[in-house]
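Homework help board

Subject: predicted structure for assignment chain

Our instructor gave us this sequence and asked us to write out the predicted structure in token form, then describe one feature. I got the tokens but I'm not sure how to describe them. Can anyone check?
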Amino acid sequence: MEEKILEISEGQLKAFDMSSFYSIIPLNDPEFYEKAGDQHYRLLAYFSTLFNHTNIIDLGTHRGCSALALSYNLTNTIHSFDLSDQILNRAIRERENIRFHRGINLFDPIFLNDPDHPNNQTWNNLIKGSSMIFLDVDPHNGQMEWSFYQYLLRIKYTGYLLAD
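My token output:
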């Protein structure tokens, strides 16, 4: 996998307009509107503008805020994966360009080690064809992230991988 580096200035991110989310996440939210470096949502929203009419993968939905940030560019479709459903905000759940996938374990060794298995083809094709993957899973010990990175190498993924 070829390493690609995107350069973004602090000024670009600080000035990035997040007002389209005010009706979904209150402006006084202690995390969502923090500057890049303190929280990643502004960075994710910015990254979504670098792609048009593509799939973006969000691994580790949790409350859905990363999927929401990635959905900033409405031309993209966000596929967000988590084993459980912890989304309390109905407006996030109903966002038109987000598809939530529950109970699908993309970190299962059977999935990661046998990408050619017929049961894995749907998700492999979606992942391989996506322009960007945001990987934010618990626990943050690096083991699942490393396994998934190795899987991406096996399927010859060519998009961007952003890991928290």
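Reply (TA_rk): Your tokens look well-formed. For the description, you could write something like this. The mean pLDDT is 89. That's the kind of observation they're looking for.
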